[in-house]
Amino acid sequence: MIPEETKKLLKSLPVKKTQALSYVMELLQRRVGSPLSFTSIAKDVGVTSRTVSRYLKILEQKNIVFMIYPYFLEQRQIFYKNPKIYFYENFFKASNEGVYFENKIALKLKKHLEFLNKNKKKDYQLSYLKNKTRKEIDFCLLDNSKIKYVIETKISAKIINPTLLNLSQLKELKAIQVIKKSEKELNFSKENISLITEGKLLSILNL
C-alpha cells in the first residue's frame, strides 16, 4: 500500500507515465528486502528495464528509496546487480511485521554509516551478504571494502539463523542477530555472535 502523501509526491515527479511509476512503486513495496530484477518489474509494468532504472534513480534522488548491493563472500567484493530496495520514513507501509522491521533496521544502519563517513572521515558501506550456496544474510557492514559485521533481523529470538551461525566461525567478522522483541531477558552466549534487541544495535557496533 502506498501512503497518500507518497502518491501526491509521485505526481509531482518529472515522469510522463505517472501511472506506470505508481505501479513500479507498488511492486517495490511488495519486494522490500528481496533482490530486485529490473527485467521482471519492467515486464510486470509494461515498460523497459531502462525505464525502471530511470524511475529508481529519480526515487533515490528524492530520498524515497535506497538500494544496497550484494557482497559475495568468496569473491570478497560487491556486485552491482540485483540490489535490495528499502524505503525512507513516511514512504512505506507494510502488513508484514518482519519486512517492516527489516526496512527500519536498514534505514537505521544507512543513516549511522553516513554519519560516520561524513563526520569521522570513514569509508563504511552497507551491503547484503551472499555466499556460494546462494544463502543470504540481511546486511553486512564493510570497512574499506572489507567485511566487518554481518547482521540478520528477526521479530523474535526463537531461533538463530543457521547461516549466521556458520559465518560466526570466521574470525575476521562479527555476527549479530537483531530482534524486535523478546519475551524475556536475552541469555545467549557464543563466540563471535551476538543476539540483541533493536535498541542496542548501534551501541554494539565498534565502528
Notes on the structure:
Helices cover 36% and strands 23% of the residues. The longest helix is centred in the middle third of the chain and has 23 residues, at 97-119. Strands 3-2-5-6-7-8-9 form a seven-stranded mixed sheet. Strands 1-4 form a two-stranded antiparallel sheet. Helix 3 (38-45) crosses helix 4 (49-61). With 207 residues, the protein is of the alpha/beta class. The chain has a domain at 98-204. The chain is built from seven helices and nine strands; from the N terminus they run ααααββββαβββαββα. Strand 2 (70-72) and strand 3 (77-78) form a beta hairpin. The mean pLDDT is 87.
Summarize the structure.
It contains seven helices and nine strands.
- What proportion strand? 15-25%
The amount of helix comes to 25-40%
* Shape field: globular
Radius of gyration: 18 Å
The N- and C-terminal alpha carbons lie at a distance of 36 Å
Largest sheet: 7 strands, mixed
Oligomeric grouping of the chains: single chain
Structural class: alpha/beta
SSE diagram, text form:
Blueprint: H1 4-11, H2 18-30, H3 38-45, H4 49-61, E1 65-68, E2 70-72, E3 77-78, E4 84-87, H5 97-119, E5 124-130, E6 136-143, E7 146-154, H6 162-167, E8 174-179, E9 193-197, H7 201-204
Parallel strand pairs: 2-5, 7-8, 8-9
Antiparallel strand pairs: 1-4, 2-3, 5-6, 6-7
